[in-house]
Protein backbone atom coordinates (compact mmCIF):
# COMPACT_ATOMS: atom_id res chain seq x y z
CA UNK A 1 0.00 0.00 0.00
CA UNK A 2 1.55 3.32 -1.03
CA UNK A 3 2.41 5.75 1.74
CA UNK A 4 2.00 3.14 4.47
CA UNK A 5 4.29 4.08 7.37
CA UNK A 6 6.67 1.37 8.49
CA UNK A 7 8.59 2.11 11.70
CA UNK A 8 12.40 2.05 11.53
CA UNK A 9 14.26 -0.88 12.96
CA UNK A 10 11.44 -3.41 12.98
CA UNK A 11 12.70 -6.79 14.18
CA UNK A 12 12.58 -9.59 11.60
CA UNK A 13 12.21 -12.05 14.47
CA UNK A 14 10.80 -11.65 18.00
CA UNK A 15 12.18 -13.87 20.75
CA UNK A 16 11.28 -14.86 24.31
CA UNK A 17 12.91 -13.21 27.32
CA UNK A 18 13.82 -15.74 29.98
CA UNK A 19 16.09 -15.17 32.99
CA UNK A 20 17.47 -11.95 31.54
CA UNK A 21 18.26 -13.45 28.12
CA UNK A 22 16.63 -13.07 24.73
CA UNK A 23 16.12 -16.65 23.54
CA UNK A 24 14.35 -18.75 20.93
CA UNK A 25 12.17 -21.75 21.64
CA UNK A 26 14.13 -24.82 22.64
CA UNK A 27 12.77 -26.65 19.61
CA UNK A 28 13.10 -23.62 17.30
CA UNK A 29 9.32 -23.29 16.67
CA UNK A 30 8.12 -19.99 15.14
CA UNK A 31 4.90 -18.36 14.02
CA UNK A 32 4.24 -15.55 11.51
CA UNK A 33 3.33 -12.00 12.58
CA UNK A 34 1.26 -9.85 10.19
CA UNK A 35 0.97 -6.13 9.46
CA UNK A 36 -2.82 -5.48 9.56
CA UNK A 37 -2.69 -2.80 6.86
CA UNK A 38 -1.14 -5.06 4.21
CA UNK A 39 -1.39 -8.46 5.88
CA UNK A 40 2.27 -8.91 4.92
CA UNK A 41 4.15 -11.35 7.11
CA UNK A 42 6.62 -8.76 8.45
CA UNK A 43 8.26 -10.90 11.16
CA UNK A 44 8.30 -14.25 12.87
CA UNK A 45 8.04 -14.80 16.61
CA UNK A 46 9.30 -17.67 18.73
CA UNK A 47 6.41 -20.05 19.43
CA UNK A 48 6.79 -21.11 23.06
CA UNK A 49 6.06 -24.72 24.02
CA UNK A 50 5.87 -26.57 27.32
CA UNK A 51 9.70 -26.70 27.57
CA UNK A 52 10.00 -22.92 27.15
CA UNK A 53 7.33 -22.23 29.76
CA UNK A 54 9.18 -24.62 32.10
CA UNK A 55 12.40 -22.62 31.69
CA UNK A 56 10.60 -19.33 32.33
CA UNK A 57 8.88 -20.71 35.44
CA UNK A 58 12.19 -22.06 36.73
CA UNK A 59 13.78 -18.61 36.33
CA UNK A 60 10.83 -16.84 37.97
CA UNK A 61 10.81 -19.38 40.83
CA UNK A 62 14.51 -18.89 41.51
CA UNK A 63 14.07 -15.10 41.45
CA UNK A 64 11.18 -15.47 43.89
CA UNK A 65 12.90 -17.91 46.29
CA UNK A 66 16.34 -16.33 46.28
CA UNK A 67 15.15 -12.73 46.04
CA UNK A 68 15.77 -9.92 46.49
CA UNK A 69 12.50 -8.84 44.79
CA UNK A 70 9.83 -10.30 47.13
CA UNK A 71 11.76 -9.24 50.24
CA UNK A 72 12.55 -5.69 49.24
CA UNK A 73 10.88 -2.85 51.11
CA UNK A 74 7.80 -1.57 49.31
CA UNK A 75 9.56 1.77 48.86
CA UNK A 76 12.51 0.08 47.10
CA UNK A 77 10.25 -1.79 44.71
CA UNK A 78 8.28 1.41 44.10
CA UNK A 79 11.48 3.25 43.09
CA UNK A 80 12.09 0.69 40.36
CA UNK A 81 8.44 0.75 39.24
CA UNK A 82 8.64 4.54 38.90
CA UNK A 83 11.74 4.13 36.75
CA UNK A 84 9.72 1.72 34.59
CA UNK A 85 7.07 4.44 34.21
CA UNK A 86 9.81 6.96 33.27
CA UNK A 87 11.15 4.57 30.62
CA UNK A 88 7.68 4.01 29.16
CA UNK A 89 7.09 7.76 28.98
CA UNK A 90 10.49 8.30 27.36
CA UNK A 91 9.66 5.76 24.66
CA UNK A 92 6.09 6.95 24.10
CA UNK A 93 6.54 7.83 20.43
CA UNK A 94 8.33 4.61 19.55
CA UNK A 95 5.87 2.57 21.57
CA UNK A 96 2.86 4.17 19.92
CA UNK A 97 4.36 3.62 16.44
CA UNK A 98 5.02 -0.04 17.11
CA UNK A 99 1.61 -0.57 18.71
CA UNK A 100 -0.15 1.09 15.78
CA UNK A 101 1.88 -0.89 13.26
CA UNK A 102 1.17 -4.23 14.93
CA UNK A 103 -2.48 -3.73 15.97
CA UNK A 104 -3.91 -1.32 13.39
CA UNK A 105 -5.11 1.05 16.15
CA UNK A 106 -5.22 4.75 15.19
CA UNK A 107 -1.93 6.41 16.18
CA UNK A 108 -3.63 9.14 18.25
CA UNK A 109 -5.31 6.46 20.37
CA UNK A 110 -2.13 4.35 20.67
CA UNK A 111 -0.38 7.34 22.25
CA UNK A 112 -2.99 7.51 24.97
CA UNK A 113 -2.41 3.83 25.70
CA UNK A 114 1.32 4.41 26.28
CA UNK A 115 0.58 7.16 28.80
CA UNK A 116 -1.92 4.93 30.58
CA UNK A 117 0.64 2.12 30.77
CA UNK A 118 3.13 4.46 32.49
CA UNK A 119 0.38 5.66 34.82
CA UNK A 120 -0.36 2.07 35.85
CA UNK A 121 3.21 1.66 37.10
CA UNK A 122 3.19 4.98 38.98
CA UNK A 123 -0.17 4.18 40.51
CA UNK A 124 0.81 0.76 41.89
CA UNK A 125 4.18 2.11 43.06
CA UNK A 126 2.30 4.70 45.14
CA UNK A 127 -0.31 2.24 46.31
CA UNK A 128 2.06 -0.40 47.63
CA UNK A 129 3.94 2.23 49.63
CA UNK A 130 0.70 3.65 51.05
CA UNK A 131 -0.73 0.24 51.94
CA UNK A 132 -1.57 -0.09 55.63
CA UNK A 133 -1.00 -3.26 57.63
CA UNK A 134 -4.19 -4.61 59.19
CA UNK A 135 -4.17 -5.06 62.96
CA UNK A 136 -7.23 -5.97 65.06
CA UNK A 137 -7.33 -5.80 68.84
CA UNK A 138 -9.61 -7.24 71.50
CA UNK A 139 -8.42 -5.04 74.43
CA UNK A 140 -6.78 -7.06 77.17
CA UNK A 141 -7.48 -10.36 75.37
CA UNK A 142 -6.08 -10.69 71.88
CA UNK A 143 -4.04 -9.01 69.21
CA UNK A 144 -4.44 -10.06 65.58
CA UNK A 145 -2.47 -8.84 62.63
CA UNK A 146 -2.09 -9.72 58.97
CA UNK A 147 1.13 -10.63 57.18
CA UNK A 148 0.90 -9.84 53.49
CA UNK A 149 3.06 -12.10 51.36
CA UNK A 150 3.45 -12.17 47.56
CA UNK A 151 1.94 -15.41 46.25
CA UNK A 152 4.85 -16.46 44.03
CA UNK A 153 5.16 -16.79 40.26
CA UNK A 154 2.24 -15.07 38.55
CA UNK A 155 1.16 -16.26 35.10
CA UNK A 156 -0.15 -13.31 33.04
CA UNK A 157 -2.07 -14.01 29.81
CA UNK A 158 -3.18 -11.02 27.76
CA UNK A 159 -5.19 -10.20 24.60
CA UNK A 160 -4.27 -8.30 21.44
CA UNK A 161 -6.46 -5.22 21.90
CA UNK A 162 -4.38 -2.40 23.42
CA UNK A 163 -1.78 -5.09 24.20
CA UNK A 164 0.96 -3.04 25.90
CA UNK A 165 -1.47 -1.19 28.17
CA UNK A 166 -3.29 -4.38 29.19
CA UNK A 167 0.04 -6.07 29.93
CA UNK A 168 0.99 -3.11 32.17
CA UNK A 169 -2.29 -3.51 33.98
CA UNK A 170 -1.21 -6.94 35.21
CA UNK A 171 2.57 -6.46 35.37
CA UNK A 172 2.41 -3.35 37.58
CA UNK A 173 0.34 -4.80 40.49
CA UNK A 174 1.99 -8.25 40.29
CA UNK A 175 5.46 -6.72 40.56
CA UNK A 176 4.39 -4.13 43.15
CA UNK A 177 3.08 -6.96 45.35
CA UNK A 178 6.47 -8.70 45.12
CA UNK A 179 5.57 -11.53 42.75
CA UNK A 180 7.78 -12.64 39.90
CA UNK A 181 6.07 -13.14 36.56
CA UNK A 182 5.78 -15.05 33.31
CA UNK A 183 3.92 -13.01 30.68
CA UNK A 184 2.32 -14.72 27.67
CA UNK A 185 1.24 -11.91 25.30
CA UNK A 186 -1.31 -12.40 22.52
CA UNK A 187 0.06 -14.07 19.40
CA UNK A 188 -1.51 -11.56 16.99
CA UNK A 189 0.47 -8.67 18.53
CA UNK A 190 3.86 -9.61 20.05
CA UNK A 191 5.71 -6.47 18.85
CA UNK A 192 5.21 -3.90 21.62
CA UNK A 193 5.67 -6.58 24.30
CA UNK A 194 9.21 -7.04 23.02
CA UNK A 195 9.99 -3.59 24.53
CA UNK A 196 9.39 -4.73 28.10
CA UNK A 197 12.75 -6.48 28.53
CA UNK A 198 14.73 -3.30 27.76
CA UNK A 199 12.43 -1.17 29.90
CA UNK A 200 12.80 -3.45 32.94
CA UNK A 201 16.57 -3.80 32.48
CA UNK A 202 16.96 -0.01 32.28
CA UNK A 203 14.89 0.40 35.45
CA UNK A 204 17.04 -2.12 37.36
CA UNK A 205 14.53 -4.94 37.88
CA UNK A 206 16.51 -7.94 39.17
CA UNK A 207 17.19 -10.75 36.69
CA UNK A 208 14.54 -13.46 36.49
CA UNK A 209 11.72 -11.34 37.99
CA UNK A 210 10.19 -10.63 34.55
CA UNK A 211 9.98 -13.39 31.95
CA UNK A 212 8.12 -13.39 28.66
CA UNK A 213 7.20 -16.36 26.49
CA UNK A 214 5.56 -15.69 23.12
CA UNK A 215 3.38 -18.26 21.47
CA UNK A 216 -0.05 -19.58 20.71
CA UNK A 217 -2.68 -19.82 23.38
CA UNK A 218 -3.21 -23.54 22.91
CA UNK A 219 0.55 -24.16 23.35
CA UNK A 220 2.39 -21.56 25.46
CA UNK A 221 -0.75 -20.28 27.23
CA UNK A 222 -1.98 -23.78 27.95
CA UNK A 223 1.40 -24.84 29.38
CA UNK A 224 1.48 -21.80 31.66
CA UNK A 225 -2.02 -22.50 32.96
CA UNK A 226 -1.16 -26.15 33.65
CA UNK A 227 2.28 -25.60 35.20
CA UNK A 228 2.18 -26.68 38.88
CA UNK A 229 4.78 -24.05 39.84
CA UNK A 230 2.48 -21.14 38.92
CA UNK A 231 -0.05 -20.61 41.72
CA UNK A 232 -2.11 -17.92 40.04
CA UNK A 233 -3.21 -16.86 36.56
CA UNK A 234 -4.43 -13.41 35.64
CA UNK A 235 -6.23 -13.66 32.30
CA UNK A 236 -7.87 -11.14 29.99
CA UNK A 237 -9.53 -12.44 26.83
CA UNK A 238 -12.58 -14.15 25.44
CA UNK A 239 -15.18 -15.76 27.65
CA UNK A 240 -14.77 -19.16 25.97
CA UNK A 241 -10.99 -19.06 26.55
CA UNK A 242 -11.67 -18.12 30.17
CA UNK A 243 -13.86 -21.21 30.54
CA UNK A 244 -11.08 -23.44 29.15
CA UNK A 245 -8.53 -21.87 31.51
CA UNK A 246 -10.91 -22.27 34.45
CA UNK A 247 -11.16 -26.02 33.73
CA UNK A 248 -7.41 -26.42 33.18
CA UNK A 249 -6.49 -24.54 36.36
CA UNK A 250 -8.69 -26.76 38.53
CA UNK A 251 -6.14 -29.59 38.91
CA UNK A 252 -3.71 -27.31 40.71
CA UNK A 253 -6.40 -25.14 42.36
CA UNK A 254 -4.94 -21.92 41.05
CA UNK A 255 -5.99 -18.41 41.96
CA UNK A 256 -7.79 -16.91 38.96
CA UNK A 257 -8.60 -13.38 37.90
CA UNK A 258 -10.64 -13.28 34.71
CA UNK A 259 -11.50 -10.23 32.63
CA UNK A 260 -13.66 -11.56 29.80
CA UNK A 261 -15.89 -10.44 26.94
CA UNK A 262 -18.71 -7.92 26.85
CA UNK A 263 -21.80 -6.72 24.98
CA UNK A 264 -22.37 -3.54 26.89
CA UNK A 265 -25.52 -1.42 26.53
CA UNK A 266 -25.62 2.33 26.06
CA UNK A 267 -29.10 3.39 27.25
CA UNK A 268 -30.36 6.76 26.03
CA UNK A 269 -33.55 8.14 27.61
CA UNK A 270 -35.68 10.78 25.91
CA UNK A 271 -34.72 13.37 28.56
CA UNK A 272 -30.97 13.01 27.86
CA UNK A 273 -28.68 15.64 26.40
CA UNK A 274 -28.92 14.12 22.92
CA UNK A 275 -25.77 15.62 21.41
CA UNK A 276 -23.63 14.58 24.34
CA UNK A 277 -25.14 11.08 24.25
CA UNK A 278 -24.45 10.74 20.53
CA UNK A 279 -20.83 11.92 20.94
CA UNK A 280 -20.26 9.44 23.70
CA UNK A 281 -22.04 6.54 22.02
CA UNK A 282 -19.92 7.05 18.88
CA UNK A 283 -16.74 7.08 20.94
CA UNK A 284 -17.97 4.09 22.95
CA UNK A 285 -18.31 1.76 20.00
CA UNK A 286 -15.95 3.10 17.34
CA UNK A 287 -12.85 4.13 19.33
CA UNK A 288 -10.04 1.55 19.37
CA UNK A 289 -11.59 0.20 16.13
CA UNK A 290 -14.45 -1.19 18.23
CA UNK A 291 -11.95 -3.76 19.51
CA UNK A 292 -12.70 -2.80 23.07
CA UNK A 293 -14.03 -5.04 25.85
CA UNK A 294 -16.17 -2.21 27.27
CA UNK A 295 -17.52 -1.09 23.88
CA UNK A 296 -21.11 0.17 24.05
CA UNK A 297 -22.06 -2.14 21.19
CA UNK A 298 -25.82 -2.13 21.85
CA UNK A 299 -27.51 1.25 21.89
CA UNK A 300 -30.98 1.27 23.46
CA UNK A 301 -32.98 4.40 22.72
CA UNK A 302 -36.31 5.55 24.17
CA UNK A 303 -39.03 5.61 21.52
CA UNK A 304 -39.80 9.40 21.37
CA UNK A 305 -36.22 10.22 20.28
CA UNK A 306 -35.49 6.96 18.46
CA UNK A 307 -35.80 8.17 14.85
CA UNK A 308 -33.90 11.39 15.51
CA UNK A 309 -31.14 9.49 17.34
CA UNK A 310 -30.77 6.89 14.57
CA UNK A 311 -30.61 9.54 11.86
CA UNK A 312 -28.04 11.74 13.64
CA UNK A 313 -25.94 8.82 14.86
CA UNK A 314 -25.78 7.20 11.41
CA UNK A 315 -24.85 10.52 9.77
CA UNK A 316 -21.93 10.90 12.20
CA UNK A 317 -20.87 7.25 11.70
CA UNK A 318 -20.77 7.78 7.92
CA UNK A 319 -18.36 10.70 8.47
CA UNK A 320 -15.83 8.77 10.56
CA UNK A 321 -12.42 8.78 8.92
CA UNK A 322 -11.29 5.22 8.22
CA UNK A 323 -7.78 4.73 6.92
CA UNK A 324 -4.13 4.07 7.52
CA UNK A 325 -3.73 3.85 11.31
CA UNK A 326 -0.52 5.92 11.23
CA UNK A 327 -2.31 8.94 9.79
CA UNK A 328 -3.19 11.30 12.70
CA UNK A 329 -6.53 12.09 11.00
CA UNK A 330 -7.62 8.44 11.13
CA UNK A 331 -10.40 7.61 13.58
CA UNK A 332 -10.87 3.92 12.74
CA UNK A 333 -7.85 1.94 11.52
CA UNK A 334 -7.38 -1.63 10.33
CA UNK A 335 -8.64 -4.59 12.36
CA UNK A 336 -5.89 -6.61 13.95
CA UNK A 337 -5.74 -9.73 11.79
CA UNK A 338 -7.42 -11.27 8.73
CA UNK A 339 -9.02 -13.98 10.92
CA UNK A 340 -10.63 -11.34 13.10
CA UNK A 341 -11.59 -9.29 10.04
CA UNK A 342 -13.39 -12.33 8.59
CA UNK A 343 -15.26 -12.80 11.88
CA UNK A 344 -16.40 -9.16 12.01
CA UNK A 345 -17.40 -9.16 8.32
CA UNK A 346 -19.44 -12.31 8.93
CA UNK A 347 -21.40 -10.45 11.62
CA UNK A 348 -21.89 -7.53 9.22
CA UNK A 349 -23.52 -9.94 6.76
CA UNK A 350 -25.62 -11.55 9.51
CA UNK A 351 -26.73 -8.06 10.58
CA UNK A 352 -28.16 -7.31 7.15
CA UNK A 353 -30.92 -9.82 7.78
CA UNK A 354 -31.33 -8.92 11.47
CA UNK A 355 -31.57 -5.14 11.31
CA UNK A 356 -31.94 -2.10 9.09
CA UNK A 357 -28.53 -1.02 7.75
CA UNK A 358 -28.01 2.72 8.30
CA UNK A 359 -24.25 3.10 7.76
CA UNK A 360 -21.29 1.05 6.60
CA UNK A 361 -22.02 -2.58 5.87
CA UNK A 362 -18.69 -3.69 4.43
CA UNK A 363 -15.30 -2.51 3.26
CA UNK A 364 -14.98 1.31 2.98
CA UNK A 365 -14.69 2.70 -0.54
CA UNK A 366 -11.11 3.18 -1.69
CA UNK A 367 -9.55 0.77 0.83
CA UNK A 368 -9.32 -2.39 -1.21
CA UNK A 369 -6.73 -4.26 0.85
CA UNK A 370 -6.03 -4.58 4.57
CA UNK A 371 -8.48 -5.34 7.37
CA UNK A 372 -10.73 -2.27 6.99
CA UNK A 373 -14.40 -2.30 8.00
CA UNK A 374 -16.59 0.78 7.56
CA UNK A 375 -18.27 1.85 10.83
CA UNK A 376 -21.50 -0.10 10.59
CA UNK A 377 -24.84 0.82 12.15
CA UNK A 378 -27.90 -1.42 12.28
CA UNK A 379 -31.23 -0.11 13.62
CA UNK A 380 -34.40 -1.98 14.69
CA UNK A 381 -32.35 -4.91 15.98
CA UNK A 382 -34.40 -7.43 17.95
CA UNK A 383 -33.14 -8.70 21.31
CA UNK A 384 -32.97 -12.31 20.14
CA UNK A 385 -30.76 -11.58 17.15
CA UNK A 386 -27.14 -12.65 17.06
CA UNK A 387 -25.76 -9.13 16.58
CA UNK A 388 -27.61 -8.11 19.77
CA UNK A 389 -26.41 -11.13 21.79
CA UNK A 390 -22.88 -11.92 20.61
CA UNK A 391 -19.65 -9.98 21.05
CA UNK A 392 -18.48 -8.78 17.62
CA UNK A 393 -15.41 -6.83 18.81
CA UNK A 394 -15.34 -4.51 15.82
CA UNK A 395 -16.89 -1.24 14.56
CA UNK A 396 -20.43 -2.59 14.40
CA UNK A 397 -23.35 -1.40 16.53
CA UNK A 398 -26.96 -2.54 17.04
CA UNK A 399 -29.64 0.06 17.90
CA UNK A 400 -32.90 -1.04 19.51
CA UNK A 401 -35.88 1.05 20.71
CA UNK A 402 -37.50 0.79 24.15
CA UNK A 403 -40.79 2.11 25.55
CA UNK A 404 -40.16 2.59 29.31
CA UNK A 405 -37.65 2.04 32.13
CA UNK A 406 -38.66 -1.56 32.72
CA UNK A 407 -38.31 -2.37 29.03
CA UNK A 408 -34.91 -0.68 28.88
CA UNK A 409 -33.71 -2.68 31.87
CA UNK A 410 -34.91 -5.98 30.42
CA UNK A 411 -33.06 -5.26 27.17
CA UNK A 412 -29.92 -4.03 28.93
CA UNK A 413 -29.71 -7.12 31.14
CA UNK A 414 -30.93 -9.55 28.49
CA UNK A 415 -27.54 -10.91 27.38
CA UNK A 416 -25.09 -13.33 28.99
CA UNK A 417 -22.45 -10.61 29.48
CA UNK A 418 -22.27 -7.97 32.22
CA UNK A 419 -19.13 -5.88 31.82
CA UNK A 420 -20.03 -2.21 31.39
CA UNK A 421 -23.09 -0.03 30.82
CA UNK A 422 -23.62 3.60 29.86
CA UNK A 423 -26.76 5.55 30.80
CA UNK A 424 -27.88 8.92 29.48
CA UNK A 425 -30.70 10.74 31.31
CA UNK A 426 -31.14 14.08 33.01
CA UNK A 427 -33.35 12.54 35.68
CA UNK A 428 -31.08 12.07 38.70
CA UNK A 429 -33.26 9.57 40.54
CA UNK A 430 -33.75 7.43 37.44
CA UNK A 431 -29.99 7.50 36.74
CA UNK A 432 -29.10 6.09 40.14
CA UNK A 433 -31.90 3.54 40.44
CA UNK A 434 -31.30 2.33 36.90
CA UNK A 435 -27.55 2.00 37.52
CA UNK A 436 -28.23 -0.04 40.65
CA UNK A 437 -30.48 -2.46 38.74
CA UNK A 438 -28.08 -3.01 35.84
CA UNK A 439 -26.25 -6.32 35.70
CA UNK A 440 -22.92 -4.73 34.88
CA UNK A 441 -19.62 -4.49 36.73
CA UNK A 442 -19.16 -0.85 35.73
CA UNK A 443 -21.67 1.89 34.92
CA UNK A 444 -20.98 5.30 33.44
CA UNK A 445 -23.77 7.84 33.99
CA UNK A 446 -23.86 10.69 31.48
CA UNK A 447 -20.17 10.15 30.90
CA UNK A 448 -17.48 8.58 28.76
CA UNK A 449 -15.49 5.51 29.57
CA UNK A 450 -12.85 7.17 31.73
CA UNK A 451 -11.77 5.29 34.80
CA UNK A 452 -10.05 6.25 38.04
CA UNK A 453 -7.42 3.55 38.68
CA UNK A 454 -8.58 3.16 42.28
CA UNK A 455 -12.04 1.92 41.31
CA UNK A 456 -12.95 -1.75 40.79
CA UNK A 457 -12.66 -2.99 37.22
CA UNK A 458 -14.41 -6.20 36.30
CA UNK A 459 -17.54 -7.81 35.01
CA UNK A 460 -20.40 -9.95 36.25
CA UNK A 461 -22.05 -12.97 34.58
CA UNK A 462 -19.98 -14.17 31.58
CA UNK A 463 -17.80 -11.06 31.65
CA UNK A 464 -15.48 -12.05 34.41
CA UNK A 465 -14.50 -13.33 37.76
CA UNK A 466 -12.93 -11.14 40.40
CA UNK A 467 -11.98 -7.51 40.19
CA UNK A 468 -8.89 -5.61 39.30
CA UNK A 469 -8.23 -1.98 40.23
CA UNK A 470 -6.61 -0.38 43.24
CA UNK A 471 -6.06 -2.57 46.30
CA UNK A 472 -8.10 -5.37 44.69
CA UNK A 473 -5.28 -5.96 42.24
CA UNK A 474 -2.66 -6.03 44.99
CA UNK A 475 -4.83 -8.43 47.01
CA UNK A 476 -4.98 -10.88 44.11
CA UNK A 477 -1.19 -11.18 44.02
CA UNK A 478 -0.88 -11.37 47.83
CA UNK A 479 -1.52 -14.06 50.42
CA UNK A 480 -2.91 -12.68 53.65
CA UNK A 481 -1.80 -14.62 56.70
CA UNK A 482 -3.62 -13.92 59.97
CA UNK A 483 -1.47 -14.05 63.12
CA UNK A 484 -3.32 -14.30 66.49
CA UNK A 485 -1.71 -13.58 69.86
CA UNK A 486 -3.43 -14.02 73.21
CA UNK A 487 -2.49 -11.17 75.51
P1 LIG B 1 -8.44 -14.75 23.42
O1 LIG B 1 -9.22 -15.35 24.53
O2 LIG B 1 -8.48 -15.39 22.08
O3 LIG B 1 -6.89 -14.70 23.79
C1 LIG B 1 -6.43 -14.04 24.96
C2 LIG B 1 -5.11 -14.66 25.38
O4 LIG B 1 -5.36 -16.01 25.80
C3 LIG B 1 -4.07 -14.75 24.26
O5 LIG B 1 -2.78 -14.49 24.80
C4 LIG B 1 -4.17 -16.20 23.83
O6 LIG B 1 -2.99 -16.70 23.25
C5 LIG B 1 -4.46 -16.89 25.15
N1 LIG B 1 -5.10 -18.20 25.04
C6 LIG B 1 -5.93 -18.66 24.08
N2 LIG B 1 -6.29 -19.94 24.32
C7 LIG B 1 -5.68 -20.30 25.48
C8 LIG B 1 -5.67 -21.48 26.26
N3 LIG B 1 -6.35 -22.56 25.88
N4 LIG B 1 -4.95 -21.50 27.39
C9 LIG B 1 -4.27 -20.40 27.79
N5 LIG B 1 -4.22 -19.26 27.09
C10 LIG B 1 -4.93 -19.20 25.94
O7 LIG B 1 -8.87 -13.24 23.36
P2 LIG B 1 -8.43 -12.14 22.28
O8 LIG B 1 -9.15 -12.45 21.00
O9 LIG B 1 -6.95 -12.02 22.29
O10 LIG B 1 -9.00 -10.81 22.93
C11 LIG B 1 -10.29 -10.33 22.72
C12 LIG B 1 -11.19 -10.71 23.88
O11 LIG B 1 -10.67 -10.18 25.09
C13 LIG B 1 -12.59 -10.14 23.75
O12 LIG B 1 -13.53 -11.10 24.13
C14 LIG B 1 -12.58 -8.99 24.76
O13 LIG B 1 -13.84 -8.61 25.26
C15 LIG B 1 -11.71 -9.53 25.82
N6 LIG B 1 -11.17 -8.46 26.64
C16 LIG B 1 -11.65 -8.30 27.91
C17 LIG B 1 -11.19 -7.26 28.71
C18 LIG B 1 -11.72 -7.06 30.08
O14 LIG B 1 -11.06 -6.37 30.85
N7 LIG B 1 -12.85 -7.62 30.46
C19 LIG B 1 -10.21 -6.39 28.20
C20 LIG B 1 -9.74 -6.58 26.92
C21 LIG B 1 -10.22 -7.63 26.15
Automatic annotation (TrEMBL):
InterPro entries referenced in this protein's UniProt entry, alphabetically: Ald_DH/histidinol_DH, Ald_DH_C, Ald_DH_CS_CYS, Ald_DH_CS_GLU, Ald_DH_N, Aldehyde_DH_dom, DH_HpaE
Domain Aldehyde dehydrogenase residue range list: 27-483
GO terms for biological process, alphabetical: 4-hydroxyphenylacetate catabolic process
Sorted UniProt keywords: NAD, Oxidoreductase
Gene3D superfamilies: Aldehyde Dehydrogenase, Chain A, domain 1 (3.40.605.10), Aldehyde Dehydrogenase, Chain A, domain 2 (3.40.309.10)
Catalytic residues of the enzyme: 259
Pfam families with a match to the protein in the record: Aldedh
Family: Belongs to the aldehyde dehydrogenase family.
Protein's recorded name: 5-carboxymethyl-2-hydroxymuconate semialdehyde dehydrogenase
Biological classification of the source: Bacteria, Bacillati, Actinomycetota, Actinomycetes, Micrococcales
Gene (name only): hpaE
